[in-house]
Amino acid sequence: MLSFIYSVFFWIGFLAVVPYLALVAYAAYGCPEQNLKTKYNAKWALVTGGSSGIGAAIVRKLASQGLNVVVAALDDQTLVNFKSEIQKEFPSREFRFVGCDLSTPDGQAYMDAVKKATADIDVQILCNNAGFITTGCFADITFGRNMANYHTNVTSGVIMSHYFLNRMLEKGQRGLITFTSSSAGFIPNPMSALYSSTKIFLTTFAASLAAETAEDKIDVLVVHPSPINSNFYSNAGKMSALLSAQKISSPPSVIAETICRNAGKVVVADQGPITVIMKIVLSKVLDWNVFTEIMKLALPFTGDYKAMKVKRNAKSQ
Ligand SMILES: NC(=O)c1ccc[n+]([C@@H]2O[C@H](COP(=O)([O-])OP(=O)(O)OC[C@H]3O[C@@H](n4cnc5c(N)ncnc54)[C@H](OP(=O)(O)O)[C@@H]3O)[C@@H](O)[C@H]2O)c1
């Protein structure tokens, strides 16, 4: 009887982890870089949050493959600087820059600008990448800031995907839609509750969309990066878990490479060892109920939580 129970547990563990690791190995080592311009017979791509970090690396990679790129990002100095850098780096490519705020609820203003900028071109590669993290307890962050985080990370990707997917379908074009999600979505994340929730939304949305668009030859890819060195951390506040993650971060170019290797090969790309270990331990081995109970017990002992309490108490006095 006992050996039967052992073998049931063995096979459950085996089926949960081994096919996953086989696909991770295939995605990491079995997929050589593809030229996305050739693969999708495309001329234009659009990258949101393309002015810095991962987005800027994606723009560079696509331009190096011969694609022209529309960059949609906040209309600030980062975009101004990136504009002059990228045009110097790739003088024979065409770039269009849409300075816009993707944090609005209905997307009307930025979609007007995006539609105008892309009216005479076919965007066949859409990289939904813009995003940021808001740290602290949900209740202490203003409602407006929480919703701006939500709309940038989630709503903008949904609106853009709906628009460009329909344009590709109308013209019967091949294409690629990518989402930059995060391993933060694998687990409950107190002190950045909204961020992790937006990221798991993207993963579920992308994986569902991928099945709907497969017959139409439009690939969907969602990437879960291991820590990547970018402005993400400087904009995140001083949370100790994030500061530790930054110390072991890789350059943004690894995500651009992952996209070029994995487009059309897998739907979910778990990039790097941190993401893979987190996926196995925190979402395959530990149940969410168990993990949440551990979090509830551990959180009050963390420095970030204690600092938040001090701040909250000072405010209420
Ligand atoms: N870095 C990591 O370790 C990591 C790990 C997992 C997932 N990610 C995800 O990767 C994506 C890219 O982040 P990153 O690491 O490259 O950080 P980043 O360097 O800060 O880049 C974020 C990009 O999004 C733009 N952006 C932010 N808010 C915007 C808004 N309201 N409207 C328009 N554009 C906006 C930024 O413009 P400005 O520069 O002008 O603000 C920038 O171009 C994000 O979705 C992030 O959640 C990052």
From TrEMBL:
Entry-linked PROSITE patterns: ADH_SHORT (PS00061)
Transmembrane segments: 6-29
Primary location class: endoplasmic reticulum
A matching Pfam family: adh_short
Keyword Kinase attributed: no
Keywords: Membrane, NADP, Oxidoreductase, Transmembrane, Transmembrane helix
Coiled coil: none
InterPro entries the UniProt entry points to: NAD(P)-bd_dom_sf (IPR036291), Sc_DH/Rdtase_CS (IPR020904), SDR_fam (IPR002347), VLCFA-Steroid_DH (IPR051019)
A Gene Ontology molecular function term of the record: oxidoreductase activity
GO CC field: endoplasmic reticulum
Subcellular compartments: Endoplasmic reticulum
Protein name: Uncharacterized protein
